[in-house]
Write a structure and sequence with these properties.
globular, 377 residues, binds flavin mononucleotide, 15 helices, TIM Barrel, alpha/beta, eight-stranded parallel sheet
């Protein structure tokens, strides 16, 4: 860990720790991966105005996200099956690192570890779900989140139909899994990961065990994703969820207005990390449109392509209250479990702190377009 300077270094470490199909599951996205690249590249198109001699000796990165105090404007984004990156316990490792760093952790409904297990390890966490054809399942998940005092529910709207993960196709990953010689070689070359996988918790959607009748397979749960979902269903969810509600996947001002109309507390500008709609606009370029649509009626988060503290500051400067960290934390998790996520968060915190100071700010909450050179977005 001592030689890790950037999230890109953690990504390289993850590449060497994970069997290739698992690394590609994390690192890859849908179809031609145009949006995955754009999410990152478009941050690079923004440049700071460097400011000097403004007494930046004392600096604050603290803020709030939907009312919750956070030590920097970031939370962990929900990622399905991330438990498998670390012996079936990845979600707990990441949740511990997030708690120690003073930022929220969001557990995805498609996690390996259950909401109850993560709650037992770290206390209340944010919980994510997708709308499912069987609304009884949604109600069941919501009731558990209420019982475990989750303060925030994140509704993901970007996965109602599934984008084709090209790298998984090339790697021969199928549902149900089929064993090939190449896969055996890929997995055999990463014995530490395989050992942790064999001795850890079995990879499955354990949140659905007991909730769904019959055997819980990955295919059955994915088959529950409901492409007929509309804002009416979000209204229904708002009615049964008393806590804060974040709609993840809003990239357009009209959708932003609809989210506010149904009573959401925040939206996250998200294209699911490019995992489904390829050629969607990058999230940083869509952010100003969404901020205009929300028009101060709620908060705006952003996820997609955030790989540094500089990216976090750019998002805040363009109107985001905070960001959700997807792959940035997964690379750390795959590299070294809890210590790797802790490293990812400390890398981002340090970069953010330096960037806040050298753009002439002492409080990250004061970031605005004024710290950026003019850009196309
Ligand atoms: C491996 C992987 C699994 C994911 N699973 C989920 C999920 O179950 N639910 C969800 O809302 N988003 C999921 N996402 C999307 C992330 O929450 C987030 O939107 C995305 O990773 C942001 O892009 P970035 O990782 O390039 O920053 C997943 C992303 C990855 C890479």
């Amino acid at each position: 860990m001592d030689r890790i300077a950037t999230i890109a270094d953690l990504r390289e470490m993850a590449r060497h720790k994970l069997p290739r199909p698992i690394f590609d599951f994390v690192d890859g996205a849908a179809f031609g991966e145009v949006t995955l690249r754009a999410n990152c590249d478009d941050f690079g198109k923004l440049r700071f105005r460097q400011r000097v001699l403004k007494d930046i000796a004392s600096r604050s990165l603290s803020t709030t996200m939907v009312g919750q105090p956070v030590s920097m404007p970031a939370a962990i984004s929900p990622t399905g099956l991330s438990g498998m990156l670390w012996g079936g316990g990845g979600e707990i490792e990441a949740a511990r690192a997030a708690k120690a760093a003073g930022i929220p952790f969001t557990l995805g409904m498609m996690s390996v570890r259950t909401l109850e297990e993560v709650h037992e390890a770290v206390g209340p966490v944010w919980f994510q779900l997708c709308m499912l054809k069987d609304r009884g399942l949604v109600r069941g998940l919501v009731e558990r989140a209420i019982a475990l005092h989750s303060p925030v529910l994140v509704l993901t709207t970007t996965w109602t139909v599934s984008g084709l993960q090209s790298r998984s196709v090339r790697n021969g990953i199928t549902l149900p899994p089929k064993v090939s010689l190449r896969n055996l070689l890929d997995f055999g070359s990463r014995p530490a990961w395989v050992w942790r996988a064999l001795t850890g918790k079995k990879v499955a959607f354990h949140n659905f065990v007991g909730l769904m009748k019959g055997e819980v397979s990955i295919g059955r749960v994915v088959g529950e994703l409901d492409p007929s979902t509309t804002w009416k269903d979000v209204e229904w969810l708002r009615g049964i969820w008393p806590g804060k509600l974040v709609i993840k996947g809003v990239c357009d001002r009209e959708d932003a207005r609809s989210a506010m109309d149904v009573g959401a507390d925040a939206v996250s500008v998200s294209n699911h990390g490019g995992n489904h709609l390829d050629s969607a606009a990058s999230t940083i370029s869509a952010l100003p449109d969404v901020v205009a649509g929300v028009d101060g009626r709620g908060e705006v988060f952003l996820d997609g392509g955030v790989r540094s503290g500089q990216d976090v500051l750019k998002a805040v400067a363009l109107g985001a209250r905070g960001v959700l960290l997807g792959r940035a934390h997964l690379y750390g998790l795959a590299a070294a479990g809890e210590a790797g996520v802790a490293k990812a968060l400390s890398v981002i915190r340090n970069e953010l702190d330096v960037s806040v100071g050298l753009t002439g700010l002492t409080d990250v909450r004061d970031a605005s377009r004024a710290i950026l050179w003019p850009s196309e977005f």
